[in-house]
Amino acid sequence: MQDKITQFDWAVIGAGPAGIAAVGKLIDNQVKPEKIAWFDPEFRVGDFGSKWRKVPSNTKVSLFNRFLTASDAFNYTNCPEKFALHNLNPDKTCELKFMADPLQWVTAQLQKQVHWQAGLVKHLKLNHKHWEISLADQKLSAKNVILATGAEPKTLSFPAVQTIPLEMAFDPDHLAQNCSKEDTVAVFGSSHSAILIIRNLLENCSLKKVINFYQSPLRYAVYMDDWILFDDTGLKGTTADWAREHIDGTLPPRLHRVLSSSENLQEYLPNCTKAVYAVGFQKRLISIEGFNDLSYDDKTGIIAPGLFGLGIAFPEGKIDRLGNLEYRVGLWKFMDYLTTAMPLWLKYPA
Question: What is this structure's pTM?
Answer without folding.
Answer: 0.94
